[in-house]
Amino acid sequence: MTARTTRRPAAKSRIAAVGAIAVAGTMLLAACGDQTKNGSTNNSSAPLSGLLPKEIRDKGVIKVGSDIAYPPVEFKDKSGNTVGIDPDIAAAIGKQLGVTLQFQNGTFDTLITGLRSKRYDLAMSSMTDTKDRQQGVDSETKKKVGEGVDFVDYFTAGVSIYTPKGDDRGIKTWADLCGKKIAVQRGTVSHNLAKAESKKCTGGEKIAIETFDNDLEAQTRLRSGGVDAGSSDFPVAAYAVKTSGGGKDFQIVGEQVEAAPYGIAVAKGNDQLTKAIQAALEAIIKNGEYNKIISKWGVEAGAVTEAELNGGS
Predict the structure, then answer these.
(1) For position 89, what pLDDT does the model report?
(2) CA distances (Å), origin 166, targets 87, 138, 181, 252
(3) What is the C-alpha separation between 61 and 244, in angstroms, rounded?
(4) Strands (E), the chain
(5) Rounded-to-integer distance, Cα 273 and Cα 51, Å
(6) Buried-exposed string 275-308: b where 16+ CB fall within 10 A, e elsewhere
(7) Is 285 within 8 Å of 307 (Cβ atoms)?
(8) How far apart are CA 122 and CA 103, in angstroms?
(9) What is the DSSP letter of 92?
(10) Are 177 and 207 in contact (CB under 8 A)?
(11) Which residues have C-beta within 8 Å of that of residue 183, sequence separation ≥ 6?
(12) H/E element, 23
């Protein structure tokens, strides 16, 4: 879930979103209801309901696998409701399709497996659309490990490094992590980048990589002083910097890398569902609802202008 790999510098202008994310995170939580309950609508008012597979249309529910511990993209508010960018977009998609997109919590690196086993209909969890995931290829070994998934792309984000506030430990780039410790969420682009960079380190100074089930656990490890840095998708890193310890715990260092699309994942072969999700996303982009959601969370720099299918590289 983290952006969740040719390295590409992200646009510097995206850094400006930090302050806006903080405002969204602190002021809008109370306004965001539990999107697992608010995504349904009457089929008579849902213009695209006929695009769904009949069995889903009859049930009225699309099961969405998500690692709900990745603020501000998806997380639990103080009342235990599922809120964030992804749940808000999902609710808007559900309104177009006349169904509820019901979020179900899972560990990030098991979400694609959950699609294959039909535990979930979709996975929506800050998941980066990559060719490896599309083709079911392990990003490290390049071996085939599954059938792959299709992605409907809905956002763009890069990956950032953050350190204790006031002490960057000499870290400005990924290369500076050699000989240091980093905490990351397992199975994410941050994890893959750390492994790839460690292989480049010389003089026996590899990167000590500590992996966790979710990003909040990785943040806790950094906060306790157990590692030198953490890494996650830029919106998540920016939110952590602005909110953890009232903004006193962390700081972002360097620039984003690996700017790439987030995608809503659908198991291969479910073409009707994929096309329905794509059409619904395209509809909310055109009617302005998508931009309202993106603006509410202060992440306009990551907005997309069309619902592209499998646009990742």
Answers:
(1) 98
(2) 34, 37, 17, 10
(3) 35
(4) 61-66, 75-76, 82-83, 100-105, 122-123, 149-164, 181-185, 208-212, 229-233, 250-267
(5) 8
(6) bbbbbbbbbbbeeebbeebbebbbbebbebeebb
(7) yes
(8) 9
(9) H
(10) yes
(11) 210, 211, 212, 218, 219, 221, 222, 226, 227, 229, 230
(12) helix 17-27
Per-residue confidence (pLDDT) for residue 42, from 0 to 100: 44
Looking at every residue in the chain, the average pLDDT score rounds to: 88
Share of the chain above pLDDT 90, in %: 81
Amino acid at 9: P
Burial (0-12, 13-18, 19+ Cβ within 10 Å), 241: buried
DSSP state of 227: S
pTM score: 0.79
pLDDT tens per residue across span 198-228: 999 999 899 999 999 999 999 999 999 999 9
Q: What angle do CA 247, 249, 252 make, to 5 degrees?
A: 80
242-251 pLDDT, tens digit per residue, is 899 999 999 9
pLDDT band with cut points at 50, 70 and 90 for residue 258: confident
Instruction: Judge whether residue 111 has pLDDT over 80.
Output: yes
